[in-house]
Amino acid sequence: MSNSINYVSVPEQLDFAGDIFPKIVVNDGSVKTVDQAIEFIKANQTELENSLAQSGSLLFRGFPVDSAEKFDAFSASFGYPNFTYQESLSNAVRINFTERVFTANEAPKDVEIYLHHEMAQTPISPSKLFFFCLASSDIGGATPLCRSDKLFAALREKAPKLAQDFADKGLKYKTYMPGENDANSGQGRSWKDTLSVNSKQQAEQKLHELGYTWEWLEDGQLKAITPVLPAVIKLDDGAEIFYNQLIAAYMGWKGVRENPSIAITFGDDSHIPVDGLELVVELSKEFTFDLAWQDGDVAIVDNYRAMHGRRSYSGDRKRQVLVALAAGTK
Q1: What b/e readout covers 39-76, taking b as 16+ CB neighbours within 10 angstroms?
Q2: What is the CATH number of domain 149-284?
């Protein structure tokens, strides 16, 4: 078995002055079992991690990963602390395959999930995301990946005051958690599941500990408002990252395009200008790569450097992309 890394190029890759996004690692045919894949990762982990830190995303193609269990072993081989779905504050309904591995999202196939940093709308978010394509879709279903550092640099150039407001003021998010799970919504996880509680009293205690304010609605929903969360973070290498869920909230959350303030405001409760949100959406397109999945693909996304989403899809084949999350710090 060869332990050398076989990087390949595809025409759609983005090249930021030699900074390739994403980097693609293809099995040269010598890695034939998941145990050999784990051996390959461990032998090359330092270089792979350096590539991930530089690029923001790595795609592994042609490796012997064809089940949730093998993906569990593959992702665990990096040795990162596990970040389970149960302990997260994710709004999405998901289904666990193993303790580590669960579905990326159960929203209907015609629903697009727009660019975001995973769980950036909560006080607790993972550092890295592992994605695995168990089954690709017939048409569509790509995972867009966006370099948020490049996006924020462009925003600073185009709208410096807006960029500084994001950096200085941060953000607040308003979310609405239903009384019961709603798999037809990209934000359909119930408040009981989201907060890992069984009663309103327990929910209020958890929200208080996390710094939220809240309101119980007549239809059983919980309206929760976050404490001030960052819109921009700075990494150890000095890169400024547009770390938030603004695009996803503005483009995908119900009613937000008509009135953004129902879900997102600056941290001082002032309104974010709509033309500023439109500018962010438009700029993001320049720094986005659509990952068109092949069965067996595994991707690692640095959640502090790159956003991700999900294109809608169609066809008879059910798209199944699974995920495992890693805890850690930037």
Answers
A1: ebbeeeeeebeebbeebbbbbbbbbebebbebbbbbbb
A2: 3.60.130.10
In this prediction, the residues of the chain whose per-residue pLDDT falls under 70 are: 1-2, 85-87, 92-93, 183-187, 330
User: What's residue 1's pLDDT?
Assistant: 67
Q: CA 239 to CA 235: how far, in whole Å?
A: 5
Where are the chain's structural domains?
7-140+293-326, 149-284
Angle (CA) 248-290-309 rounded to 5° is 25
Radius of gyration of the chain (CA): 20
The pTM (predicted TM-score) of the whole model is: 0.92
Residue 21, φ and ψ in degrees, nearest 5 = -140, 125
Q: How far apart are CA 28 and CA 319, in angstroms?
A: 26
CATH fold label, 7-140+293-326: Double-stranded beta-helix (3.60.130)
What does the pLDDT look like over 23-58, one tens digit per residue?
A: 999 999 999 999 999 999 999 999 999 999 999 999
CB 121 within 8 A of CB 175: yes
Residue 22 one-letter amino acid = P
In the numeric block, the tokens 């989201």 are attached to: 194
